[in-house]
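Anyone? Bumping this.
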Amino acid sequence: MRSLEDYHPRAVGLYFLAVTCIAVFSMNPVIVAESLAGSLLLYLVRHGFRDGKTHLGTLGLFVVLTLVNPVVSHNGVTPLFVVNNNPVTLEALLFGAFTAAMITGTLYWFRSFSEIMTSDKLLCLFGALSPKLALLFSMALRYVPHFRRQSERVQASQRAMGLYKEDNLIDAARGGTRVFSILLTWALENGIVTADSMAARGYGLGRRSSYTIFLFRRRDFVFLLFSILLTAATIAGSFRLGYSYYPVFRVDIPDAWGSAGLAAYGLLALLPAIIEIKEAVRWRWYLSKI
Amino acid sequence: MALVSVENLSFTYAGASSPALRDVNFTVEAGEFAAICGPTGCGKSTVLRLLKREIAPLGEKSGRITLFGEEQDALDSLRSAAAVGFVMQKPEEQIVTDKVWHELAFGLENLGMPQGEIAARVAETAAYFGIEDWFTQSTATLSGGQKQLLNLAGVIVMQPELLILDEPTAQLDPIAASEFIAALRRLNRDLGLTVLLVEHRLEEIVPAADRLIVMEDGRVTDSGAPADVLARMGDSPLFRAMPAASRLWRSTGKIGSCPLDVRSGRSWLEANFTNSVRALPPEEEREAGEPALEFSDVWFRYERSAPDVLRGLTLTARVGECFAVLGGNGSGKTTALSAAAGIFKPYAGQIRVFGKKLKDWRNQSLYRECLALLPQDVQTVFLCNSVREELREAGADPASLPFDLSPLLDRHPYDLSGGEQQLVALGKVLASKPRLLLLDEPTKGLDVGMKDRLLGLLGDLRDGGMTIAAVTHDVEFAASFADRCALFFRGEAVASGTPREIFSKNSFYTTAAARMTRGFYDNAVTVEDAAALALKNGRRGGLS
């Protein structure tokens, strides 16, 4: 039961756009922490603790990114220790840590994004912009695997005739080029059939419409409205927030507007995880009735 | 009133010297199931394409085409696109988009239809064709039969009044082809949809058709109810493509009216001939030679977590014989052949070629004067821009080939017809002078004339000492081609023997002639066998 998958691509697409943009453009420590917490929680809710390797890799990246900054930057007023006459400062370390948190948080957002927004959902987004662009995208998606499969077939055929030598690099490269060149011919040749098939079904006669199997339901509207309101509140509140990393690490106590902004982003970041959890609980309840 | 009426249609392709069509006249009534048959190059595809304005070929046209009572050129462009549906031969290349549901909606999107209407039409069409199960899949994951069914559905969703099909089943295996034809018959019967198609495989089309149109050399030579057309048909080689029942009727002296399908052929045979002699004398066994290709307990899977494709396969093809491997889709036939050619390596068991383990043929010696594989998609054999270069690359001398390729030498391999491509590819693989020739579906997409030619060729190669192993779906071909057959099921050879042994025992997976004579004669597998037996027995009631 992964309910975020069932939301309309436009709502989900806009949500991810908002949540990642704010995360990338704001270095406010609270926002960065909220983004990392929200994205990590969403990933954990969807996958459980199974993908240990993924998390470990990300942790490694986090550590490396954290440590790089204090090595190259010596700003800040609180030296922790001195290496080769260069001070390693607390401020540089903190800046490194929050930059790393921002990047890993965004990484987790993208992981969930690419799982949830499959090609047909992206297509639905493009379709809203231009039906022609959507079609082009869809044709390209079909063509890439089609091309690769034919390439494998040609290579197998040539190998079985003993004409395709891969004993050394030069032969392999030569063989590869020849296969590629005939594949282009093949693609053009078969493109004619595809073009006929398109013309036979009235392509190019008039204005195309764009069909999608996704319906925009009431909950999509609610989700979209929430996302927009929370984003607006975050942006409004962000003007009242003061913080700095250098020369001294400082986060000002926010006023009412600023607090509201931070809370809004926290809610925004947690929104998908909340939806997932709510659906999972509801599903358990339904399941108990079956 | 005629739905389609073609009057005095002549057509010359741009740049061609002689016309492709001369004075073609025919009509198709509303609700008819009409089939056009004729040899390759007789102009039947040209006629179909001229009927579909959007993809009509360029050239000089004269005469009149009337569709739905209107001049073709006067039809509104949206109506013309939607009302005439066109399905072509190649299942894969006709597909435009990457998702099944999007492919179904494609035509309606082109018409600019609003979302709600598209949703309803796509839904009902998907339900009608049983596409719901793979509705959200990628088109790349579908089988050939599913792809062609999707192409049909993608046209039907536009609610055509006339459905035109140009050899729609040529690239499909027989089971998928039967399903496709059944879908056409259902559309014709349920919706009263007018169907006009061109096909080489007529065994199932002719009994279904209301009208058979015969074309030869750019002209319509006959048109009418199939039984009447067959009765009138002279000594045309076209008859070879007709259903087994009508061929039997013809080769036993045309008694009574012409039967078209297995059922009517059976009752016709039983009504007209006796069966006191039930079986033909057994075939002379060929001398059992040394093993040429030996599988012993071979196991193979494509990926570690995938299911086994070959499951303890054990079989032997002997030197100097034609060996046919039969079986359904996914039974591991093609995989076995590729494993024999060293493309895949089994994880257990041994494959021996001429007594030597596959891995002991080092440095590609396997492919020199030993073994050659002709793949299913013969286009994958070609790498050059002309037939001459192809042959030169493989080191083949066109003059030494057992068939003449000289008229084709300067053409691009992709421009040749399916049969010609098959010949050129065969010429290319023969260049390495193989002693063991492996063929994967050699009859796919070939017309009957070409099939006969291929049969003759393979027979000659065998008589020259070559061992030939072919994987095929085509039971009629296997019955005439093979000295021995093996039947595959789930990655094993479950039965093997001479075609007569195999096909006279099987009741579904067998030739039309065997199905027709089952229980009446014992070992008639081909129409020729059945005719010989019928003539030997003589007519019922003492007349002869």
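Late reply, but here is one note on the structure posted above: Chain A has two domains: 4-124+214-288, 143-200.
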